[in-house]
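Severity: low
Component: inverse-folding endpoint
Summary: output formatting inconsistent between runs
Steps to reproduce: submit the following structure tokens with default settings.
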């Protein structure tokens, strides 16, 4: 048998899957990372029309159709007050591919690390700093790019302190990742933090990858992007239609950054992907340029559920930093709580699936209706009694 690459051997299939498999078929699943709403009709219809017209039978331009990239640039002007050239956008297969090509294009597999450091971490590549607990792909994609993951802890409110990032930067740092609103915590970074992240990227000449896939799901404060404060060209923004328009299955995201960075990321995208799926590009263009009220409707529904969940957690006696965005909450939980929940038919994900500092927490994902959420809360109450 052939050998496998050391990069791939450092990555395993996501721990979240194992949790799903452990649960019964009619369990209440509070582990899923996707909205429970339908994709807007006008987005679906645009794809159907494009399929019937034959417009999607061929490859599009590698970066995506000009019309889609214009719709994305308009979105950045409308929502982020950013002037983005459609030429500086690559449409990708979801935010996942955008993260992948950003890391592939910027992280070297040979850093300046000492032999001792290499043996300890099993990797010699440049470092990527990201939040712990944080989205599972950051660690895996860093390994796949040949880099060295450098997870850093969070503040008590589960936001990422720019000072922590700055302290973690070494001569081997290629990039740091900021994710607001965040998975798995629901935390939203302040405008001041975002300004600091842009400053750090400029001053230390490292790349800031800003993962903004939950940008529209904010309940308190506001979403701001470090790109707004960037004049060094060291910020790239990753975004997607997945969460904003409930289009996780369509696989359409994008990355934007300086012309030079886009050109390098395009080299990876061109050979790994050629172009994002054409029907999805048409659907995304319609979603981004059509009526935006669905986005607000979903945000309002998530806020109501968040409030029900927070009240319920308080009632049963679980301490939970208030999540200001996304559709996740991360209460502190006693040992054995997650297993007791799963045994009783409520799937929640152990915090350590998102990094070592996630130990002692559970991630509750709440894209379910209020009734289901209340039922789950009463089961969590029983689970808690069982371990206390
Ligand atoms: N970034 C974060 C923080 C996420 O939670 C996810 C998906 O869960 C993604 C990126 C990837 O999204 P997509 O489905 O668009 O690939």
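Observed output (run 2 of 3):
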């Amino acid at each position: 048998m052939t050998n496998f690459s050391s990069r791939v051997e450092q990555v395993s299939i996501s721990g979240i899957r194992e949790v799903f498999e452990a649960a019964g078929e009619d369990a209440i699943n509070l582990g899923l990372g996707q909205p429970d709403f339908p994709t807007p009709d006008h987005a679906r219809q645009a794809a159907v029309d494009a399929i019937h017209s034959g417009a999607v039978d061929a490859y599009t331009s590698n970066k995506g159709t000009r019309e889609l990239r214009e719709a994305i640039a308009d979105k950045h002007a409308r929502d982020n007050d950013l002037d983005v050239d459609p030429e500086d956008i690559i449409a990708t297969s979801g935010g996942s591919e955008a993260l992948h090509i950003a890391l592939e294009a910027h992280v070297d597999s040979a850093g300046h690390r000492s032999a001792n450091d290499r043996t300890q971490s099993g990797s010699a590549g440049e470092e990527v700093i990201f939040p712990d607990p944080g989205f599972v792909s950051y660690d895996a994609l860093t390994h796949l790019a040949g880099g060295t993951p450098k997870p850093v802890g969070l503040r008590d409110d589960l936001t990422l302190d720019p000072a922590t990032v700055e302290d973690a930067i070494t001569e081997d740092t290629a990039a740091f990742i900021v994710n607001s609103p965040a998975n798995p915590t629901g935390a939203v970074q302040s405008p001041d933090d975002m300004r600091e992240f842009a400053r750090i990227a400029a001053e230390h000449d490292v790349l800031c990858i800003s993962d903004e896939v939950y940008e529209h799901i904010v309940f308190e404060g506001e979403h701001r992007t470090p790109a707004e404060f960037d004049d060094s060209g060291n910020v790239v923004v990753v975004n997607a239609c997945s969460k904003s328009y409930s289009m996780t299955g369509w696989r359409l995201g994008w990355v934007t950054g300086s012309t030079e960075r886009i050109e390098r990321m395009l080299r990876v995208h061109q050979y790994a992907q050629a172009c994002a799926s054409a029907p999805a590009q048409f659907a995304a263009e319609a979603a981004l340029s059509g009526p935006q009220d669905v986005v607000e409707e979903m945000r309002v529904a998530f806020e109501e559920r968040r409030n029900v969940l927070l009240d319920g957690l308080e009632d049963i006696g679980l301490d939970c930093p208030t999540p200001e965005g996304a559709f996740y909450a991360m209460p502190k939980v006693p040992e054995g709580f997650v297993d007791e929940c799963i045994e009783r038919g409520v799937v929640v994900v152990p915090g350590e699936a998102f990094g070592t500092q996630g130990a002692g927490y559970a991630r509750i994902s709440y894209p379910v209706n209020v009734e289901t959420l209340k039922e789950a809360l009463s089961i969590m109450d029983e689970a808690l009694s069982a371990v206390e």
